[in-house]
Amino acid sequence: MWKAVEVGDWIAARKTSLEEARATVTEVIGRVRKDGDSALRQLSRHVELKEIRVSNAEREAAYDAVPKKITDSLADARTRIERFHSLQKPRDLWLQEVGPGIVLGMKTTPLDRVGLYIPGGRAAYPSSALMCAIPAKVAGVREICACSPPPISPMTLVALDLAGVTEIYRSGGAQAIAAMAIGTESIPAVQKIVGPGNIYVTLAKMMLRETVEIDFPAGPSEIGIIADQTADPAIVAADILAQAEHDPAAACLLITTDPSLPEKVGRKIDEMLPGATRKEIIGQALGNSGYVVVRTLDEAIAASDAVAPEHLSIQVEDPLPVVTRVKNAGAIFVGRYSAVSCGDYAVGTNHVLPTAGYAKTYSGLDVMHFCKTASVEMISREGLEAIGDTVEILADAEGLHAHAEAVRIRRKSRKT
């Protein structure tokens, strides 16, 4: 089960799993587009779906079903996540004079309506509810709707309520993504969909991108670990099992300069696995996982960048030079005490991250995912004179003479 792998094969396997879901997702999207709410009810496998929207009374009742220590922990996590994401919020408008008579700037505007996908099914993920909703709230989004597979855990309902979500719907899988993208009788369409999910959810987001904007492909979970001879095999094994328990399609990759480390980690995995509560899921995920032995940290960094893991744990003697040189990762965890689990829950950073190599081109979820920007130009007569010749010459050169005339006529005008 714990085996040596080739980096290229590992990467190819992550892409192939998405393509295997394409036929199913295409059918689901078509059914939702045609039948709306009726399709959502028919596709709800585990419960009879009568009311799609969760009522305010159900939200309030959820607090009674959740132990106070969990509610308090969710509130503490909310505060920490909100604090970090508030640091990301840009100014609504900034202006700067860049030359005589020319003032330029940027205006940032939050989206009006977004949709969140909160996973469910195998486990409750109130943490994902916080991670998706809080940056949207910080950004200033007015309407935040969330879909999650029924029955929705009371913990998830409490987390969504604490984070300020305006609407909650009982719908999961690719059909929930289609509903938020296209709109149904119960679920008005959104401008953007964010959130992690299985391969069907991830592929639905990618396929519907012509209809709705998305954050990025996010799921199933994965971890890459760069380790040398100083790494603790028990900690490496614990991090691998933690990510493997998410989903049978999760994947873990150890990249090490220590030829003896993989065997030590393998022994620790064998010791820990029998006591794991989700050992069947972990066992399947370990089939997607393995290790690569390299000669130098340079090779380790190159291998990690080729993989572009969702989570990258750096467990080496001198980690900061590695951190500065790594280019492709969703989130980076530095040192033996920086457990990925802390990022999953309460350190304050976001755990919704690009997977399957998409960290090469995408960043993790943040406040700017819920905003759009527009440049602002303020030009006086003096400023127009400063750039007028350049604009006219280039416009005429391109054959866009009306563009040039729009400047020329202003320069001839006597008005100030």
What are the salient characteristics of this protein?
single chain; alpha/beta; Rossmann fold; 3 domains
Taking the alpha carbons of the first and last residues, their distance comes to 77 Å
What is the C-alpha radius of gyration, as a whole number of Å? 25 Å
Tell me the series of helices and strands, N- to C-terminal. Answer: HHHHHEEEHEHEHEHEEHEHHEHEHEHEHH
User: Biggest sheet, open or closed, and with what strands and sense?
Assistant: 5 strands, parallel
The gross shape turns out to be globular
Q: Number of helix segments? A: 17
> Unreliable stretches, pLDDT < 50, 5 or more residues?
none
CATH hierarchy class name of the largest domain: Alpha Beta
As laid out across the biggest beta sheet, the strand order is: 5-4-3-6-7
User: What would you say the CATH architecture of the largest domain is?
Assistant: 3-Layer(aba) Sandwich
Q: What fraction strand?
A: 15-25%
Query: In total, how many beta strands?
Result: 13
Within CATH, the superfamily of the largest domain carries the name Nitrogenase molybdenum iron protein domain
The number of distinct structural domains comes to 3
Structural class: alpha/beta
* Helix content estimate: 40-55%
Q: Roughly what is the average pLDDT, rounded to an integer?
A: 95
CATH fold description of the largest domain: Rossmann fold
